[in-house]
């Protein structure tokens, strides 16, 4: 019996040895390392960004790892000079050894041995990938070249083939109020006469109808005039009077969403010196209510100097976009106030862009979508009235990116464009942005307002969207 027990003990010991000798366990955690390669990364020498495989590991024997690395016409990718990094599970190793830079002109073969001693072969293929967006400056035309009479441009809009520029003598009705240009060539095509005095903004609705407003000056109220076409007679569609409670200067900034003649549409307007925005819902060209819905905006902690609100769609759960500027003449050093850009639904669960991304004043903005990706174009100016203005474009598809700052590694994917500096003295703080999307192209227009006709005008950019 004793002999049998000894033989049994020896058998069990051998069995245990056989079982555990097939693994390389982590003695501290009891983990078996049998995955090998977890991912593969590349860097462009001199840059900090890492580019990993489109699909993370573990990988099967014979798998090809595809890695997209940015390239552009200005900075073409050098496939012969990329710095590789392998992410390996513990107790795994790769051959040939990875060090320095390598040539990835053709797929590179590597062999990875995992913690169990199993070797797998993988192939690394680099895909030079142009950026998602490419920008080309189309033109800058000053007020003299465009034939504008009033260089303090207060509003623009783009629809179809047309670019509309407000150019009115606000003290007199009946004369030229809006000039119509070809949006590609900047050649003037027509003019639209002012329907009244103190017009300020020209907008187009989603169907291309033209809207010109009168802002509330001298108690005349906020009035909207609709033109079905360039040659149509204006039709008054809204008259919100001072007696009804219209605040001073309501309509200096406004926006339109939807079709103002058919179905549902919305008009939003703001006034300086408040924390409120006003909006009207229209149904088949008629306001549902003459009196506006007034929303006190909770994020603004004091009255703004100017603000602009835009509704993304006519859907009940539509998101809204707002910029507001709280200008304080004593804030030149700290600049703790100034402009904010925020996204909010009507329940006010808002998302704010980090203030480090914009200058003190966001004069105008537009939001547009291509292929499901969302972009923000802003026209910005520094603290002083004589600071120049710049056009910027951001991708805001991922709202989390609004918190990024220039030092963050992913910032280049968020901040896409910053133009040259334009303009001169702009005490009125006027400026507007309007975007026309045509397929995978966005045509971005910004009005540069100032007193100097050779410095004011319209800046036009073309953004080409490149599906990834």
Provide a descriptive summary of the structure in words.
It is a single chain. This protein has 3 helices and 32 strands. It folds into 2 domains: 22-129, Immunoglobulin-like; 133-465, 6 Propeller (Neuraminidase), CATH 2.120.10.70. The chain is mainly β. It is 6% helix and 43% strand. Residues 1-28 have low confidence and may be disordered.
Which CATH first-tier class of the largest domain would you pick? Answer: Mainly Beta
Largest sheet: 5 strands, antiparallel
Counting helices, strands and paired strands, the structural category is mainly beta
From the N-terminal CA to the C-terminal CA, the straight-line distance is: 75 Å
CATH fold-level name of the largest domain:
Neuraminidase
The CATH superfamily of the largest domain is identified as Fucose-specific lectin
Unreliable spans are: 1-28
Radius of gyration: 30 Å
Helix content: under 10%
Q: Indicate the CATH architecture of the largest domain.
A: 6 Propeller
| Total of DSSP H or I helical runs spanning 4+ residues | 3
Mean pLDDT: 91
Query: Which percent band covers the strand fraction?
Result: 35-45%
**What's the number of domains?**
2
Number of strands: 32
């Amino acid at each position: 019996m004793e002999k049998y027990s000894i033989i049994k003990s020896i058998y069990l010991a051998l069995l245990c040895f056989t079982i555990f000798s097939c693994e390389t366990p982590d003695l501290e955690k009891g983990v078996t390392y049998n995955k090998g390669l977890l991912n593969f990364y590349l860097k462009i020498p001199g840059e900090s960004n890492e580019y990993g495989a489109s699909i993370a590991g573990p990988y099967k024997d014979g798998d090809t790892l595809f890695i997209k690395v940015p390239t552009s016409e200005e900075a073409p990718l050098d496939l012969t000079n990329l710095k590789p990094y392998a992410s390996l599970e513990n107790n795994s190793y790769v051959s040939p050894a990875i060090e320095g830079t390598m040539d990835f002109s053709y797929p590179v073969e590597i062999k990875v041995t995992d913690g169990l001693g199993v070797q797998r072969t993988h192939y690394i293929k680099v895909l030079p990938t142009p950026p998602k967006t490419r920008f080309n400056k189309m033109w800058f035309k000053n007020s003299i070249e465009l034939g504008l009479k009033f260089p303090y441009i207060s509003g623009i809009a783009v629809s179809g083939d047309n670019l509309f520029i407000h150019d009115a003598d606000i003290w007199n009705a009946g004369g030229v109020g809006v000039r119509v240009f070809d949006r590609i060539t900047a050649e003037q095509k027509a003019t639209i006469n002012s329907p009244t005095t103190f017009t300020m903004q020209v907008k187009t609705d989603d169907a291309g109808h033209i809207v010109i407003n009168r802002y509330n000056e001298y108690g005349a109220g906020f009035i909207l005039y609709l033109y079905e076409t360039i040659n149509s007679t204006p039709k008054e569609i809204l008259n919100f009077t001072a007696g009804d409670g219209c605040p001073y200067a309501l309509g200096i900034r406004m926006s339109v969403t939807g079709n103002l003649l058919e179905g549902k549409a919305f008009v939003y307007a703001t006034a300086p010196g408040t924390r409120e925005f006003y909006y009207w819902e229209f149904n088949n060209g008629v306001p549902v209510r003459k009196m506006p819905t007034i929303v006190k905006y909770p994020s603004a902690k004091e009255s703004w100097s100017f603000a602009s609100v835009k509704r993304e769609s006519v859907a009940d759960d539509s998101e809204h976009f707002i910029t507001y500027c709280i200008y304080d003449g004593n804030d030149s050093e700290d600049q703790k106030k100034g402009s904010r850009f925020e996204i909010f639904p009507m329940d006010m669960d808002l998302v704010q862009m980090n203030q480090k991304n914009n200058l003190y004043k966001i004069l105008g903005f537009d939001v547009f979508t291509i292929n499901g990706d969302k972009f923000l174009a802003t026209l910005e100016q520094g603290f002083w009235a004589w600071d120049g203005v710049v056009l910027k474009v951001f991708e805001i598809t991922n709202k989390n990116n609004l918190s990024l700052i220039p030092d963050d590694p992913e910032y280049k994917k968020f901040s896409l464009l910053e133009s040259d500096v334009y303009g001169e003295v702009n005490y009125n703080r006027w400026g507007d942005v309007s975007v026309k999307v045509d397929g995978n192209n966005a045509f971005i227009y910004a009005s540069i307002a100032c007193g100097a006709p050779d410095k004011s005008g319209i800046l036009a950019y073309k953004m080409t969207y490149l599906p990834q």
